[in-house]
Amino acid sequence: MHNTDYAELASKLESLLSGEDHWLANLANTAALLYQELPDLNWVGFYLLIDGELVLGPFQGKPACVRIALGKGVCGSAAQRREPIVVPDVHQFPGHIVCDEASRSELVIPLITAEGRLLGVLDLDSPSLGRFSDEDARGLGDAVRILLANTNWPEKF
């Protein structure tokens, strides 16, 4: 179990995004901060909803799957359901998409604006089973809200 101080992480993210609202810069810096600050990750990044499918956005880690259909895998399922999904063992998730054989657990949080627009998802992978908890989902949900509030999103990617 990892004891991440999500209040401190939120403060660091607020500082990082302060004064910058460009969506690409903010996604890239958010991915880098999360990868740097959270232990036991092998991938963190974003998939953006473009023309009805999730397309790889800024990330940290090994090269990844580029396109994911809504409803497919953990990312597509979280986007379609519009709710976070914590997966303790990706091999037990029906339809899991393998991008990196080393990934064992996953957490995906949808990016949904205050107006209800689905922009994409934040995806985190770990080489450890059971790495993510509901506390992680809440803390990273707060980080997503900070990102959403501090970013000027284009009408269409």
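The above is record 1. Record 2 follows with the same two-line structure.
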Amino acid sequence: MASSKAHHATGFAAGIIAAAIVARNGGGPFHAGVLLSFIAGVAGSTAPDWLEVAWWSRARRLWITHRTLTHWGIGWLALLAVSYHTLGHSIFAAPAFGFACGGLMHLLADWPNPLGVPWIAGRHSLNLWNSGHCDLIVVAASWAAAWFIGEHVWLHGMHALPWLRHWPIG
């Protein structure tokens, strides 16, 4: 598992990615969807962990085993796909898309350590490093992705490498 700070840092990158894609696909009146998708992306980046906590009890214990249902890749990918296809048709689509981007960023940050994440049926790990180590690599990769996507959407690829200028988003 990546550290809490790494999940927060990658969450801001996920929020920027979500906001850029929502902006490219309409964004809603006064671009409220862009802002909502950014906020939801930041919140979604820690969601797989806080969704496991039984907030309704005093003990605040986990109601579900860590890295099971809330870390299931298919669920996050399904939310991402459904919300993407309803962008512009529902006021809930933009925040749902941002939340899914954040949740997927969380899974990608957890994937390199030995515990792994359940993408389809069982857990899969890249087995690259132990929990909490090499967070800088994960954060840098997420911000690089945010820069490329944001630059493509908002700056229309002005600073991109020539072969990236024609990369389709949305």
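The CA atoms of residues 44 and 99 lie 4 Å apart.
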